[in-house]
Amino acid sequence: MKQFYIIDFDSTFTQVEALDELARISLKDHPNREGIYQKIEDLTNAAMEGKMSFRESLTARVQLLDADKEHLKQLISHLKTKVSASFSRNKTFFKKHADDVLIVSGGFKEFIIPVVSSYHISKENIYANTFVFDNSGKIIGYDETNPLSNEGGKVTLLKDLKLQGDIYGIGDGHSDFQLKEFGMIRKFYAFTENIERKTVAEKADHVTPSFDEFLYVNNLPRAISYPKNRILCLVIGDVPALAIQTLKKDGFSIRHKTSFEEKYVPDVGMMLLANGEVLEDEKLKRAVKLKTIGYLGNSRLILSKDICTDMGIVVFDDPKNNAGNTEFIAKRMINFINHGHTYRSLNFPNLQLPRIAGAHRLIHIHHNVPGVMASINQVFADHDINIVGQYLMTNTDIGYVITDVSDHYDKRVLKDLKQIDHTIKFRILY
User: Fold this and answer.
1) Which is nearest to 46 in space by CA: 199, 171, 194?
2) Phi, psi dihedrals of residue 128, rounded to the nearest 5°
3) Are residues 154 and 32 both part of a single domain?
4) CA distance linking residue 146 with residue 149, whole number of Å
């Protein structure tokens, strides 16, 4: 059956609530601005959590705005910089599914259309409210005949649209859940990348911390092969908050602990350790999913470089323990996971490379013995794979090869690459 994707705008497609942001623009010189900001935010949350009717909340917020068309221009420029990261990196999905995506929002077309237009979403597929202006361009209200200005407006709209097919809803608020509650969609995905409303998330068919997660579970085209929210990043010890926030902002699932607890050994994908923390060899050997370790200090005497290298774990450390550079190691870890960069690692050949559009990036780590590279390229040849770019670096112990291939290929090639003799680790980067 044909599939449709109903996507919310505020706090879903964008990181913020647009009316809240508009208030901060229009009221920036108002003497009571902080109190008004808080009142608008409270009204927004009350509606999103189902504690107040949407119509009542919307009317009260619009009355408090004191905004005009010039303020809207500033808002649009601001919102374009606030598109949710996981939506921003998945433009390919929107291009391939331009006719299947509908933006359905209690927000307003005046700022939604300019923001989503670069994502190949047509105006005809954008359903939202519209402002009413006076002769001077000041916002004085909204079109009260629009069903989206009412409580249950999204349900009313979908009833009228009569879409034929499987419909999936993605949003953060009560009005998005109502689509599932009233049987208008097949599944509701609570989007929590920007905010998690527990009263909404607990009712969802699936909680999706990123748009990557939604695309992954539905086997849809996506920018990265594996959602970062599924990569467990274990932070151990007295690590600066900024370093943790850097990793969290990039979308990884963070656990901050005082020690390497046994329950995390099988599943941990990344580790960031404070200076002085020790990682036991026995646990390290069993951490089979571990891809990279960051150490905020000199790791050479307390972390086994040989074990890490043999397991294909890239280590970044800071021998000088530079307290003024709290993000340095976290960013090195992120660049490895996102792009395959091993620049300034302790135990891997240094490699930095550009991202190539329209390609999938495959990482193969192997023991540095003769013949492995030939075997890798033979697998590509056997499957008629078009290689767009290939990068190889070695040291005395390992070979590290990154291959960019055209995004159309037989997935059986992945299995064959994993089974090459002397393979340590293999993964699809994106």
Assistant:
1) 199
2) -160, 175
3) yes
4) 6
pLDDT value of residue 111: 98
- Domain range for residue 57? 3-217
Give the model's pLDDT for residue 430: 74
| Dihedral of alpha carbons 210, 212, 217, 220, sign | positive
Q: What is the rounded distance in angstroms from the CA atom of residue 174 to the CA atom of residue 153?
A: 11
pLDDT value of residue 356: 73
Tally of CB atoms within 10 A around 85: 18
Please answer whether residues 428 and 225 qualify as being in contact, where contact means their C-beta atoms are separated by less than 8 angstroms. yes
The three-class DSSP label of residue 102 is strand
Same domain, 256 and 307: yes
State the CATH number of the domain containing residue 213.
Answer: 3.40.50.1000
CA 378 to chain centroid: 35
The per-residue pLDDT for 329 is: 95
- 8 A C-beta contact, residue 360 and residue 430: yes
Considering the domain architecture, whether residues 204 and 236 belong to the same structural domain is answered as no
> Which helix or strand (DSSP H or E) is residue 60 part of?
helix 54-65
Dig out the tokens for 48 from the structure.
Answer: 């999103």
Residue 386: pLDDT band (50, 70, 90) is confident
Distance CA 21, CA 393 (A): 48
* Residue spans of alpha helices (H) in 149-277: 153-161, 174-181, 198-201, 211-217, 241-249
Same domain, yes or no: 130 and 196: yes
Q: Are 374 and 290 in contact (CB under 8 A)?
A: no
DSSP per-residue string spanning 345-389: -SSS--------TTEEEEEEEEE--TTHHHHHHHHHHHTT--EEE
Secondary structure (3-state) at 202: coil
Of the three residues 273, 307, 339, the one that is the final residue of a domain is 339
Do 326 and 368 reside in the same domain of the chain? no
Question: To the nearest whole number, what is the mean pLDDT of the chain?
Answer: 93
CA distance 169 to 158: 11
Query: What is the pTM assigned to this prediction?
Result: 0.82
Per-residue pLDDT reduced to its tens digit, 52-102: 988 999 999 999 999 999 999 999 999 999 999 999 989 989 999 999 999
Residues 143 and 291 in one domain: no
Measure Cα distances from 235 to 277, 286, 294, 296, 309 in Å. Answer: 11, 18, 9, 11, 21
**Residue 386: CATH number of its domain:** 3.30.70.260
What is the tens place of the pLDDT at every residue in 279-309?
A: 999 999 999 999 999 999 999 888 999 999 9
